[in-house]
Input
Amino acid sequence: MKTVSVEELHEATARCVRQALQVPLVITDYGEPVAVLKKLEVTDRSGQPLPQREAWIARLPRTDLDSAQAVSDDRDRA
Output
């Protein structure tokens, strides 16, 4: 991994971001590693059904509580 100081990141953000697309960058502050800048791995699952959704819902606890009333009661306590 390559190392970049906070100051270098501030001065050349675009260059550092482009570098991070290739190899993760360790960001240092006064020589101490504080963060890692790396390429974001996005998995686009929009429009796809959740696997086992119905089974997951069936395992949720059942209640007769009105959710609107619960929210209202919670707001009144604050």
